[in-house]
Design goal:
By secondary structure, the chain is an alpha/beta fold. Among the domains are: about 90 residues, no CATH class; about 120 residues, 3-Layer(aba) Sandwich (Rossmann fold). It has 11 helices and 10 strands. The strands form 3 sheets. It has a 5-stranded mixed sheet with strand order 5-6-4-7-8, with helices on one face. Strands 1-2-3 form a 3-stranded antiparallel sheet. A two-stranded parallel ribbon has the order 9-10. Strand 7 and strand 8 form a beta hairpin. Helix 8 crosses helix 9.
């Protein structure tokens, strides 16, 4: 893989030639891929065209991509990139459209200092259609969230707990990788908290999107991330992740996290409520044509409300006289006092919340 052309010419693109073309892509016709490069996020569109050329070994493969300080606007240029990669395959060496695009957009894509941290705090709004979460907002093909729910089923509640604990989550899948990048994003959406004073001591839930062996060094120093890969070798490198997702199989090699892999009654209840709300949303869209909340907002809001309820309770208990968290509190937070005991202990430790858990550990017979 090599970088054939770029603007500006002095930008450090080391490794981008592997990030923008997922390992194993030669087996597919087209794909798109989100990735991280230093402080930037990238989106590239890949295409593969058969050619009668011995030099190119019967196939011409290219990716055309862009880098931006934020991934939330990249989707707007997906269509342009798809068209351009076809153009580059059919007419190699013609870069005028790309140069014009860069000249037009470079002001937008310029990385301003501290831009990410200057966003206003987001507080929960009960009405879905007015709800916007600026940093996480990203537009997917219709039904991306419902595909995520359909794909993982009840296991999204397991992913939710790991995401809230800011564990290092790595999702493996063979190409195409575009849809898997969306799963990374959906995973991050599970962990939003909008209460002031929460999360100051814990790393932000940041999507790394696609990673490959060239990223091993940078992943070694990360304490929290959600990423995806097409390279099976990562499974053996257990020091790089806490949670490994292979297809629909969520697993962890840490003994203390094993209890979190079990679905409990409170998880089933949350999953039932989520599906119930989705059905109501579909019904309201049919009945009231002018009422147009989107399923993505419902999904993000469902987990944001759930997370806020948990942390609101924990903060109230930590501010009380005896700082005692009971089974009643756990049920009030929508958790299973026994099944979620270990999750609660991890949560208190991760967020540095000072309360005493007085939920008995069930005795072994």
């Amino acid at each position: 893989n090599m970088v054939e052309w770029c603007l500006p010419q002095d930008i450090d693109l080391e490794g981008v030639e592997f990030k923008s073309m997922a390992s194993g892509s030669h087996k597919i016709q087209s794909d798109f891929i989100y990735f991280r490069k230093g402080p930037f996020f990238g989106l590239a569109c890949f295409a593969n065209m058969p050619v009668e050329s011995e030099l190119e070994r019967g196939a011409r493969m290219k990716s055309v991509g862009i880098l931006s300080p934020s991934y939330t606007l990249l989707y707007r240029y997906m269509h342009f990139l798809e068209n351009q990669v076809r153009h580059q395959l059919e007419m190699p060496g013609h870069y005028s459209h790309l140069a014009a695009f860069y000249e037009d957009k470079k002001g937008v894509l310029h990385a301003g200092p501290g831009r990410g941290s200057s966003l206003p705090p987001v507080y929960w709004l009960p009405s879905i259609h007015r709800y916007m979460y600026p940093e996480m907002k990203i537009t997917h093909p219709a039904g991306c969230m419902s595909q995520f729910i359909k794909f993982f089923g009840e296991q999204i509640l397991i992913l939710w707990k790991f995401a809230l604990l800011r564990k290092r989550i790595l999702i493996f899948s063979p190409p195409p990788v575009g849809v898997v990048c969306y799963r990374v994003y959906c995973c991050c959406c599970l962990a939003n908290v909008s209460l002031p004073g929460i999360g100051g001591t814990i790393p932000e839930s940041k999507p790394f999107f696609y990673v490959n062996v060239a990223d091993i060094e940078s992943l070694e120093v990360e304490v929290s991330y959600v990423a995806c890969t097409t390279e099976k070798i990562f499974e053996e490198k257990r020091e790089l992740y806490d949670v490994y997702v292979d297809n629909q199989n969520v697993k962890t090699h840490h003994d203390h996290l094993q209890p979190l892999l079990k679905i409990n009654s409170a998880d089933r209840e949350k999953y039932r409520r989520l599906n119930e709300q989705r059905q109501m949303l579909l019904y309201s869209q049919e009945v009231e044509e002018d009422y147009n909340p989107c399923e993505e907002d419902l999904f993000v809001l469902f987990f944001l409300e759930q997370n806020n309820r948990i942390f609101q309770t924990l903060l109230e208990v930590s501010a009380s006289q005896d700082k005692t968290l009971t089974a009643e509190h756990a049920r009030g937070m929508g958790l299973d006092p026994q099944g979620d005991r270990s999750f609660l202990l991890d949560l208190l430790e991760a967020y540095g919340i000072d309360v005493m858990l007085v939920i008995d550990n069930p005795c072994c017979p």
